[in-house]
Design a protein that fits this description.
Elements lengths: L1 H12 L4 H8 L3 H8 L7 H11 L3 H5 L3 H24 L1
Helix pairs in contact: 2-3
């Protein structure tokens, strides 16, 4: 995935550790590692904070990751819908 490579490259260009990035955008260091190793995908708020931290557009960060982003959004929507249905049943 392009985003994983972009995140690592942008972080290393600025000489930042994963821990420093995690503190700057309010997530755990493990979360940064998961993003950089293509295990998970950042949410929209995190993408915005990353783009501000690295002084690039969100488009530049996620270029080539549109399909993956669509899948993540679809999965988030399914989870939200399932939670809503459970709440209505309870």
């Amino acid at each position: 995935m392009e985003l994983a490579r972009q995140l690592r490259a942008k972080r290393e260009e600025r000489g930042l550790s994963q821990d420093e990035v995690s503190k700057a955008i309010f997530v755990s260091r493990q979360t940064i590692s998961n993003w950089e190793n293509d295990k998970t995908y950042p949410d929209v708020q995190s993408l915005l904070l990353l783009s501000q931290l690295f002084e690039v557009s969100i488009d530049e960060l996620v270029r080539g990751d549109v399909v993956a982003m669509q899948q993540a959004i679809a999965e988030d929507s399914r989870i939200l819908l399932a939670g809503l249905l459970l709440a209505l049943e309870g």
